[in-house]
């Protein structure tokens, strides 16, 4: 049997970040009572979440063992709770939370395993701040792109207000990645007819969220203004 020689890259390797992991990066900037009482990220919707615990999802050592077992050469990691980031309303908090998440991922994953890469959380609520955080995440933390959360915002990514993000991503030569998540709201489609069938909602929500954003970007001429955007 032929030996597989083509490197395998996991392009969507989610970690299960927890509030207690990220809080230390916010201490001193916000009152402890705020950090310790409330969740850091907004909830996505009314669907029950959660998978059986998998040790490799939580730390760099476990990830390395999993990658060796599955013969994966590199993995690009994304947030899980952070997929609700687009529902964050306060742009200042969004910028601080994104920076805290990125610092946590750098310290606990990227610095501990060179085979792990990461897409940065960027505060899309303030495109200028998002461009600045993308630059820091790429240049200082070694991240490989920026995350555009599909649900949560009141405007599509074809809007020119997001041009500072695209201009900086193009200059840096890194991609921006649109990621769906919510199953019940914030994606521009009514999924009430699927009832309690989380499988249908999952498939439709992820697919439609990404299709609608890419369509909005195409009709908004994003790729005309930024022909080298990945």
Describe this structure in words.
The structure is a single chain. The chain has 230 residues and is an alpha/beta fold. Helices cover 39% and strands 11% of the residues. It has 8 helices and 5 strands; from the N terminus they run βαααβαβαβαβαα. The protein has a 5-stranded parallel beta sheet. Strand 3 (116-121), helix 5 (127-139) and strand 4 (145-149) form a beta-alpha-beta unit. Helix 4 (91-110) packs parallel to helix 5 (127-139) and helix 5 (127-139) runs parallel beside helix 6 (163-172). The longest helix is centred in the C-terminal third of the chain and has 22 residues, at 198-219. The chain is globular. The termini are far apart. The mean pLDDT is 87.
Major sheet size, sense and barrel closure: 5 strands, parallel
Number of helices: 8
Beta strand count:
5
What's the arrangement of strands in the largest beta sheet?
1-2-3-4-5
H/E topology pattern: EHHHEHEHEHEHH
Give the fraction of residues assigned to helices: 25-40%
Q: Note the beta-strand portion.
A: 5-15%
**Shape annotation:** globular
The N- to C-terminal Cα distance equals 37 Å
Mean pLDDT metric = 87
Spans where pLDDT lies below 50 across 5 or more residues:
none
Backbone structural class: alpha/beta
Backbone CA Rg: 18 Å
């Amino acid at each position: 049997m032929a030996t597989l020689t083509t490197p395998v890259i996991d392009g969507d390797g989610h970690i299960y970040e927890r509030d207690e992991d990220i809080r230390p990066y916010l201490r001193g900037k916000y009152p402890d009572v705020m950090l310790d009482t409330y969740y850091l990220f907004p909830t996505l919707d009314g669907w029950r979440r959660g998978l059986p615990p998998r040790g490799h999802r939580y730390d760099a050592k476990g990830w390395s063992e999993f990658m060796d077992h599955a013969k994966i050469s590199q993995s690009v990691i994304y947030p899980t709770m952070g997929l609700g980031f687009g529902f964050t309303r306060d742009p200042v908090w969004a910028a601080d939370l994104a920076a805290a998440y990125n610092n946590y991922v750098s310290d606990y994953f990227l610095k501990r395993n060179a085979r792990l890469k990461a897409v940065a959380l960027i505060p899309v609520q303030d495109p200028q701040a998002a461009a600045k955080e993308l630059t820091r995440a790429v240049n200082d933390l070694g991240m490989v792109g920026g995350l555009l959360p599909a649900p949560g915002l009141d405007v599509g990514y074809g809007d020119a207000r997001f041009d500072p993000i695209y201009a900086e991503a193009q200059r840096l030569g890194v991609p921006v990645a649109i990621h769906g998540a919510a199953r019940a709201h914030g994606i521009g489609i009514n999924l009430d007819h699927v009832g309690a069938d989380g499988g249908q909602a999952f498939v439709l929500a992820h697919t439609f969220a990404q299709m609608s954003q890419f369509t909005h970007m195409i009709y908004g001429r994003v790729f005309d203004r930024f022909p080298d955007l990945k």
